[in-house]
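A reminder from the course coordinator: this example appears on the midterm review sheet, so study it carefully.

Given structure:
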């Protein structure tokens, strides 16, 4: 029981649920139901009793307003623990695999939380892992050759799209990878730097913004040539109403005029 509590204390509930710290209650409930169906012990394909208990604890804390406020306050005060405090990096084969997974976890955190500036220096990787860089040369060479990691001219590392696919598709297969993705947070310097960048961008925007705001556009009035044509027939009376039906008049029009065919020598014949 004590070990489970210690493990729960190390896990970042927001990272475990893969949600934002600003997520609302409906989002938390929806993600909980999805993960509960996956980790439930009765699920023969992906059931995991330990993950299911941790999921229930995370949901109970984040779905309660008071407990969530207390957790958020303690989460801000808690410094991130290096991965080496709970992951073995020194064993021959398993240690090398854990080193590769740890580097991918560090770069994945940065790529997902700050996609515009995903570069991570070797010193930061060393600090986050809690492991000396002298033992990371083979690890980084392998990840570069596999195409999971790229190295810029400034000697900083970033996670590629293939690296993202590997992390997201194998986090369930490697418990240590899942633990590193859900334990702790990035260093506190990153949110501060990001906030400073956002503040500087807001200041530049305020300087370029005109002092007098433009008036809101009024209603659009179409010119007379673009107005819909009016049906002028609607204003005129129907002339067909009360008019005599000429077809019902039986007058033989041929009876009136004279028969010119009966004329002889240019004179009309006597009747």
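Designed residues:
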């Amino acid at each position: 029981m004590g070990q489970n509590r210690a493990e729960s204390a190390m896990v970042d509930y927001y990272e475990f649920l893969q949600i934002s710290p600003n997520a609302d209650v409906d989002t938390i409930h929806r993600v909980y139901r999805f993960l509960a169906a996956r980790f439930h012990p009765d699920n023969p394909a992906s059931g995991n009793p330990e993950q299911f208990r941790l999921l229930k604890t995370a949901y109970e804390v984040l779905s309660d307003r008071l407990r969530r406020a207390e957790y958020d306050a303690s989460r801000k005060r808690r410094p991130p623990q290096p991965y080496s405090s709970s992951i073995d990096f020194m064993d021959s084969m398993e240690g090398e695999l854990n080193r590769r997974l740890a580097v991918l976890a560090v770069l994945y955190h940065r790529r997902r939380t700050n996609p515009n500036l995903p570069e991570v220096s070797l010193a930061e990787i060393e600090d986050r892992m809690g492991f000396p860089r002298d033992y990371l040369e083979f690890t980084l060479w392998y990840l570069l050759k596999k195409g999971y990691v790229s190295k810029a001219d400034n000697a900083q590392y970033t996670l590629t799209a293939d690296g993202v696919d590997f992390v997201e598709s194998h986090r369930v297969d490697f418990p240590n990878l899942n633990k590193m993705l859900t334990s702790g947070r990035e260093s506190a310097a990153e949110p501060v730097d990001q906030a400073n960048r956002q503040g500087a961008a807001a200041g530049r925007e305020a300087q370029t913004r005109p002092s007098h705001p433009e008036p809101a556009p009024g209603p659009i009035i179409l010119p007379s040539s673009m107005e819909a044509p009016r049906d002028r027939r609607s204003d005129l009376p129907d002339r067909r109403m009360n008019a005599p039906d000429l077809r019902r008049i039986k007058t033989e029009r041929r009876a009136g005029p004279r028969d010119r065919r009966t004329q002889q020598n240019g004179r009309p014949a006597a009747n």
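The two ends are 139 Å apart (CA to CA). The chain is about 50% helix and 0% strand.
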